[in-house]
Design brief:
By secondary structure, the protein is an alpha+beta fold. The protein is built from 4 helices and 6 strands, in the order ββαβαβααββ. A hairpin with a 5-residue loop joins strand 5 (131-137) and strand 6. Bound molecules: the ligand Nc1nc2c(c(=O)[nH]1)N=C([C@H](O)[C@H](O)COP(=O)(O)OP(=O)(O)OP(=O)(O)O)CN2 and zinc ion. Pfam families: PTPS.
């Protein structure tokens, strides 16, 4: 059957995807240091406002793996919650992304780059090859997916 692998003992193993959702609030300004003020204004428009603006971001973290026969879990969602706390909530929640998060000092705080930041932070905490996808909702209408490519 599709999605099954064999663990060598003839017993089929099932691959499953599990997702945990968290929300954080942050402000930012879209501004590139490698562009002139005029170019920034032209490209980013209202999002280049010098005083910034805020979002209630929603992040979906998806992990892929085998369902462990003994525990019935791909991984314990309580553990995933703690990794998310460490990699997303502590550094980003109620922060000015551009000023409080060193990563964004020279990286434009687009949702694409927020997704990459979250991937790079989480991938080191999770067991190897388990992180599958980061989906960031900047607004209800603007959604970015990053799969580590
Ligand atoms: N490729 C990207 N484009 C834009 C990003 C981004 O991260 N990646 N971000 C923004 C702004 O940060 C902005 O805050 C988006 O706001 P806005 O366009 O107002 O959001 P909505 O589309 O949800 O609002 P409506 O006005 O209701 O359409 C811009 N571009
Ligand atoms: Zn924005």
């Amino acid at each position: 059957m599709e999605g099954e692998t064999n663990n060598g003992s003839g017993v089929a193993e099932r691959i499953c995807y599990i997702t945990r959702v968290e929300s954080f609030s942050a402000c930012h300004r879209l501004h590139s240091k490698s562009l002139s003020d005029e170019e920034n204004k032209k490209i980013f428009g209202k999002c280049n406002n010098p005083h910034g603006h805020g979002h209630n971001y929603k992040v979906e973290v998806t992990v892929r793996g085998k369902i462990d026969r003994q525990t019935g879990m791909v991984m314990n969602l309580t553990d995933l919650k703690q990794y998310i706390e460490q990699a997303i909530m502590k550094p980003l929640d109620h922060k000015n992304l551009d000023k409080d998060v060193p990563y964004f000092a020279n990286v434009v705080s687009t949702t694409e780059n927020v997704a990459v930041y979250i991937w790079d932070s989480l991938v080191h905490l999770l067991p190897p090859n388990m992180l599958y996808e980061i989906k960031v909702h900047e607004t209800d209408k603007n959604i970015v997916v990053y799969r580590g490519e």
